[in-house]
Write a structure and sequence with these properties.
The protein is α+β, with helices and mostly antiparallel strands. The chain contains seven helices and nine strands, in the order ααβββαβαβαβββααβ. Strand 2 and strand 3 form a beta hairpin. The two termini are about 15 Å apart.
Amino acid sequence: MSAPPGEDLVHQWESEQARLRLQVVQEDTEDWQQSPDFSGLERVGGVDLSFIKGDEVNACAQLVVLSYPDLEVLYEDSQMVTLTAPYMAGFLAFRETPFLLEALQRLERNQPKLLPQVVFVDGNGLFHYREFGLACHLGVLSGLPCVGVAKNLLQVQGVHKSEQHQSQIAALQKGGDSFPLTAASGKVLGKALRSSDNSCKPVYVSVGHRISLNTAVRLTHSCCRYRVPEPIRQADHRSREYLRTQMQIHDTKK
């Protein structure tokens, strides 16, 4: 296990999150976001990191770009990376963002016409301890619209896996149904979305950057063939496959 970060580093990270958080745009900024069928949206990205089981340092950083609305893979970039920042809950972005940002910058340099118009991030955005998760961090630094989609509920700011939460999940009747994730302060930090008719287990959607929550939820649902939106699902699958085939590693983890 890596040693926990020191107090000075934690304060530095908190300060950096607070500074960058001021740059988050929680509104729609693109014409395609205003369209009922997202007319004008042609490319959606997905990013993820997969680790070798038992190894917290070496990982595969993955970027995929899919066509929209067909959701066919147009581009993929798999890179083995060495994570230098220690892990601490609430500060995941300091470990992962540099490598995901590098992948986007590589694409912009080499094939700029394939740069995604929005990026799905396997993690949270505003639904975070300090309202600045991985999707916000990557969005602000890349300048691209970003959506955070988490597979598990982050229990923060008064949002818990309570009986009420479970009953709200049970009340989601069909794909596209959602309910707000409301902090103790009354602020809505995200939404639980039933992303598919075939999956009762929701995903947790929050704003990353340059998109409204309602648009983020609507777009997430439109990108789901299964429970997890296709850009993230493909990024996860291809990063694990890269570890298996290129590195001859058969035991991988998130």
